From TrEMBL, chain A:
Residues 1-20 are annotated as: Disordered. InterPro entries: ABC_transp_permease. It comes from Streptomyces viridochromogenes. Keywords: Cell membrane, Membrane, Transmembrane, Transmembrane helix. It is a multi-pass membrane protein. GO terms for cellular component: plasma membrane. GO terms for molecular function: transmembrane transporter activity. The chain crosses the membrane at residues 29-46, 67-100, 106-128, 135-152, 178-196, 225-246, 266-296. This is ABC transporter permease. It is found in: Cell membrane. The keyword Transmembrane applies.
Amino acid sequence: MTQELHTPLPRTSAPRGLRDLGADSPARPVYLALVALTVLAWILFLTDGGQFFSQANTVGILQRSAALGIVAVGQTLVILAGSLDLSVAFLVSLVSLVAAETMAGYGVLPAVGAVLAVSALVGLVNGLVITRLKVHAFIATLGISLIIKGVLDQRYDGPAGSVPESFQHLGYDRVGPVPVSALLWAAIAFAAWFLLRRTTLGYRIYAVGGDPEVARLSGVRTDRVVVAAHVLCALCAGMAGLLLAARLGAGAPTVGSDGGYDLESIAAVVLGGTALAGGRGGVAGTAGGVLLLAVLDSVFNQLEINSFAKDVVRGLVFVAALAIYARRRLAR
Amino acid sequence: MRRTLPIFGVLAVLLVAIAVANPYFLELPGFLAFVKRAAPLAILAAGQYFVIVSGEFDLSVGSLVTAEVVIAARLIDGDPGATWPVIALLLVLGALVGLVNGAVTTFLRVPSFITTLGMMLILAGAVFLWTGGAPRGALTEQFRTFGRGDLGPVPWSVLILLAVVAAVVLLMRADFGRTLVATGDNPGAAALSGVRVPLTKTIAFVLSGASAAVCAILLGGFAGVSAQVGQGLEFQAITAVVLGGVVLGGGRGSVVAAIAGAFTLEALFTLLNLYGISGALESAVQGVILIAAIALGALNLPAWAARARATNATTHTTPDPTHAKG
Amino acid sequence: MGLVLRMTGIGKSFPGARVLSGVDLEVAAGEVHALIGENGAGKSTLMKILAGVHTPDEGTIEIEGRALAFGHPLDAQRAGVSIIYQELTLLPERTVAENVFLGREPVRRGLVDRETMERTTAELLASLGEDSFGPRDLVRRLSVAQQQVVEIVKALSVDARIVVMDEPTAALAEHEVELLYRLVRQLRERGIAVLYISHRLREIFDLADRVTVLKDGAKVATEPIDRITTADLVRLMVGRELTDYYPPRAQRPPGDVLLAVRGGGNDRLDGIDLELRAGEIVGVAGLQGAGRTELVKALFGAEPFTRGEMTPRRPRSVRDGIAAGIGLVTEDRKSEGLALHQSVRDNALLVARARKGRAGGTVLQLLERVRLAPPRPEQEVRYLSGGNQQKVVLAKWLTVAPRVLLFDEPTRGVDVGAKAAIHELVRELADGGMAVLMVSSELPELIGMSDRILVLRDGRIAGRLPAGATEEAVMELAAGS
């Protein structure tokens, strides 16, 4: 403590955009890891006779990670607010069905509206159960996810509804070399980044997650902030569901749980340097976490390693990364 | 005790409702068949209880159960001579997985949510990597006896459950159990009383891993070998424990109530079946019950974040009349 | 000069205790008004009433002539009251500017106006002459003193009329105190009223214009600082009839040395020399932050000495300390002493169980020994009174028959009747051959109980006093005037 006063703090003068990846940023380690892994992947591809930076491969990486990326953006918001959402996987499935069935019956626009309404409602319920009934977020969202699962199991045996040709463009088209799905992901991530950096809600999400008591003493209505974060998270899951419906051409009751969007999105958020207890981190890191997982996948695909090895490595990466974060935090 | 009473009441009501719909339930074989069905989850819940009461999570048990069943089938591969060595191996493996979970959580300070989530992925991937995507081999009749056979009129799994219940009840009454609960309640006070907090929590994870092994042995016999045998079991076990009134965050709740929570869940499924509500709505009802039970029973459940904060900064004062001195 | 704050006839009772009665207090614009008193005199309660945390039973508060509504901290904030608590209320992971404007960020066209936030913060920092950090620095990176500057900027940014500082120097190193002084003087120059709560008399003479002394929940005096001396203040604060009863001191001379330290030190302590003998109670006095709790934790092994010699051997962990026969009754029972949701029995046996040893005797015998009445082993400890909780903590240690017992504020939050019982227990243990070290910030207790007294200041032993030392003597050593 006495040391610190004598060493004047370095004045932060970097431009604001770059500051997000400055030395103090929780997102920095994941991007360093991403760069290292990309170089490694590039070398591995070369030795294997492939080309990592080929258009096919990079487009594939972006396309495969878009849905998880979008869900993870929403998950970032709730985790930053000190909560978490285990219901996103089944919500993605539910929404894909709502989208495909509504589109088959009424067209695209009503379907998008229905999707957003259903997602917002689920998020609202999650948030209210946590704040009003004071149920632990883990249990509350687990319970909601079970309820959604029950509805899905009850009503659907397999894919249902159909998505018109026009909407399937969302899943497969490209603008130049960039897939539309990746653009959607980028747009949502940017919107969330903007929300966190420039709106009072964003500021309060950090405050509530950082220390609810301090936030309350400063006049923040903490319950509203938690509910809002949950609604936004569910809306992100809704967008991911739309995207998956476009790609599949139909709704599928298992698309969310097969993708493991609940736990994987949490893992991506935490890999991106966001504290599981809330209040620290951001969307940039989460995007890095998702990309890291996607590059890892593409390496496995190229080397034609059994796809199950992927899970092993993912698990090891999560635990190792968190162990390193824990060390770093202790060192301070 | 006060907290554990509701679950027994709920369980009693459900059992009565089952008996009304299906009088066969009142006969011994009918009842034992129910207990037999509930035994694997009850044992898994007992293991999960140790971890939750110490203030942590174990999300890896579902994967662990699948892994153990698949490994057993592959290693035994129909050879009766391999049954006992493999059973011993399964128990050791379960304990070992728990040891790793505990050590990573306590010594490397990775949140147990992430540690056991990672372990879940590692186990699921590793097992299928090893088996090449689909379970192979076969269990012996001898192995399957534990899950579906009987000793006289009583199913083996009921006997094993009774043994496990006796063991965990004794363990919770012993020094270890009391120390474990105190550690979950207030790790700081426990440490200042000389409790080895990391060791105590690690043992809880080891017990959870071992209970998953026992659960796998029963399920392998009862349900057979499949890649889905353990799917979702981690959440069912956590649900059961929480239904039993055990508080996430640690320090409160009894192991008997956690086991009763598992029975309640199983009774609920049985009842839904009896009334012709297909398995499909099972999870929805489970979700509603879970939220309702927590909302009604534990309105003072401490928020996760609040706990994390309390451990980071123990210096925060709370307004407390008895401490209000100038 | 304009009156900013007028508190009239403030009274407040908590269940079982009257904490404040008929307190009047007036603070003018541009005045630094010190509020002093011993622990338990009612300073914190008075402050929390002003902050809107507690509602008074009687009395009124006016801010610049307008009555203050009670009920919520926000009301007080809006009325221009800004409180800087001992525990800082900042978010470590956010920037200085974000903390300053937390909960009332300026908005332009629907978006947070970062420029205004950062500019205003920078201006306020500059106006305080603070250039060691900027509005974009993370609070986590700041020293405690710098964080206090942030709190003050926060107070200025809401246009506070009165700033209350509760023991602001408690967590500061010596040289950081100067910075705080400068800030307080700047607040005064801006015409803001400052209510400055402190134990440290030197600070009061350095800073205050007037001083109000509280004792036992009532106002004793308000005096301009230049018409009063240190001796006067000490007398006003502590001068009381010795109505409290303390058990008689040791009759026999102290026995063998059970614990000795030479040159003990770590990052908070330095040059600690002490000996504890069988049968004696050694008191430890010192101001907040002087290293009292650090001393007992070092002796116990929880925050061990990193240098110096100790017999029996220097404990490196809690288990070392317990194995060496040392026990610690911590200052904060709730966070460090008890597992609140567990039964009396489970708490009482915790230490014995952790050592895998058997407790000496049954739990009932144990509870009888600490005179827990009624002795109900199955009751959850959170339902016990403070005094009974403390007896359970004591019982926890008696199970392993320690040779040295360390007490950190043994009677904090304990009512008067239970206090006497605990005093008797402590003396009994010493008479039974234990060595006792007792930290207390209540001087009458310290002097009444101790066979000799060590006074700590800035992590060192500033002086040693014999039994029956006066409160003035202790205070002078502790404050280093």
